[in-house]
Amino acid sequence: MKILIVDDSEPVRRTIRSFVSDLAEDLREAANGDEAIVACRERRPDWVLMDIQMGDMNGITATRHVKAAFPETRIMIVTSFDDAHLREAATQAGAIAYVTKDDLLEVRRILMESLP
User: Fold this and answer.
1) How many structural domains comprise the chain?
2) Which of 5, 16, 50, 108 has the fewest CB atoms found within 10 Å of its own CB?
3) Which residues sit opposite 47 in a β-bridge?
């Protein structure tokens, strides 16, 4: 599967990558929402693992843009915030999963369940 990791922290992207790299045939990274949209246009990932709090464009807005342009792309929010309002906003934007960064094994489990 093709996976795009979107987080403004390189160490966080590296950590997430260590949990999912063996599941990906193509693994890319982006540091913000704008880069995520460009990467989705270029690579058409199966999954986007999206942080919420980023610089220019937050993950909720980026999710909305990605889903509008690429409805087949599955988006999982991977965030530090365990917040019901953010979870609801992410779902309304088109995310199909919401996982906190302290539960990266859950990220892996969700990805594995999507394998054919």
Assistant:
1) 1
2) 108
3) 3, 74
